[in-house]
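Quick question about two entries, pasted in order.
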Amino acid sequence: MSDAPLHTDPPPQWVVIDTETTGLSNDDRIVEIAALAIDPETMETVGEFVTLLHPDRDTGASAVHGISDAMVQDSPRFAEIAETFAQFLKGRVLVAHNLNFDAGFLEREFTRAGVELDLGRGFCTWSQGTHTSLAKACERHGITLDGAHRAEADARATWKLLIALTERLTAEVEPVRT
């Protein structure tokens, strides 16, 4: 047995994120962002950051996300919220349904804003959990998804999906045999 001290620092909070964008390419922009800070022990929200963003262009995929140019007309640009949002994310483990997509857009927006941020570690409920769309994953786990393709609704559904996945993982833990 080792004499090394036990690691007693509390685990970092999770932050469930979702973005709505003008499209799918690297040149597209974020038009809405939602981030929910989650206590890893209680799985309850302990903070949130939700806003529409002016993309400095048209809102693009309005037929998907329902966000019009008029809706974002008086919204902040990403650069205006970048420092505050970076502080909100700092030290937290990112969670998203298709984390690579959301993280890619966040990295590009932070770079455009001139704000350095290491997104750190993350958990993708799609690649590490369900391998299906958010809507189908929610249906499979009995989670209501009202307002799909809006950032806050999708982030809240992803949070509930994270809870379902962690409960499943906990239930599947077996005794260690020595």
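Here is the second entry:
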Amino acid sequence: MPQFSTASALSQRTRSLLPRELATWWTISLLLSAVEGGLVGVLVKNAYAGVASQLWVNTAVALVSGAPAFANLLSLGFAAYAQGRDKVRLMSWMMVGCGLCLAVMGFSPVSPAGLLLLTVSMIVVRILWSGIVTLRASVWRTNFERRERAIVTGRVITLAGVIIGGGSGAIGLLLDDSNRHFHWLYPALALAGMAAAWVYSGTAVRRRRRTLQQERDSAGGIRIRDLFGIFTQDREFGRYLTVMMIFGSGNLMLMAPLIIVLNEHFELSRFTQVLMTSTIPLLLVSASVPLWARLLGGQHILQYRARQSWAFVFALGCFALAAAIGQVWLLWAGSAALGIAFGGAALGWNLGHNDYSTEATSALYMGAHVTLTGLRGLVMPLLGVAIYQGLSSVNPDFGRYALIVPFLLSAAGAIWFVLLAARQRRLEGGDGK
């Protein structure tokens, strides 16, 4: 794990670049706090209830809560477009775009047309952010040595997580006073995108001209057929992605029906809904990552997933049981467990492919993983809402049992990870390394 206090481990050049990096990402975190999937889902469900049909409102909840995940579908497209282009300039303009879209969200009227405008703007913000993160990795790879990237990443992510989590909670508190506060709050937070763009536009990129020329001269690139060809070329990684598809589907299906259940069956305050779906999980992600890092150690990703995945099973089980028996305290337990589980998932998601790929194929393997994550993020929230709507059409009280489905998917994936881990130990002589 990154050692956040080891400034002496950084080169003089990196120390000179770091203040601008931190200022940029901590500033734009204020904007990101307003577009967390759980927060915007709660906003949509509460502010637009009764304005449009229940089906359309719930579908919008699915789209905005799934947007952070399914925006990944376009990350490879951003990477391809940026080849040979000034990435700092592109990222700065995308930050401006994020700010403009957030302002549009704030100006969206409380009407069916306003709901559509807000939903589309939220999706565009998350797509632009996925592009920013994709290009940021390229700039960091150029500017920072490998040993320095962990330190820089750790400093950025740790405090950014606190800002986003705390910011979403503050927004939830304001929404608890009135749904209409987002009309002035979102345009105000849009200024963070503009400020971040202004700060970041002055970032220097090491060997900029030579790197851009090398990219222009390169005929390489990742194609969709290459991504899915992995399933036949590397069957072990294909098995891993297959189980991730099932396991991850449960995690990404959860949020949309959970927001609806919290609103329609528990009738919790808007602030409480935001705490459960955004603030608490986000804050516990950063707090739990060091603990998961010790568990990961040097073991194979399958051995890690065979243990870490049960944190999600516990979290989703708490939510499903809480909905079934109407116990609010189980919702709090599920929210805390979900944040801890996501802390472990962050490590697995970023590092898992390395146990199958080589240095040369790392981007291809991660691309396959990212693409499938985006596909799950697009389909699963909508499917979760469809299940909720279907059960509610039979009996209005049955909708709350929709949370059982993501729990079952997560449990099935966890069991399959245990079986794959046992198989992997047998194949490698029982040491699991």
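Reply: The chain has two domains: 15-221, 223-433. Residues 362-394 form the longest helix (33 residues). Hope that helps.
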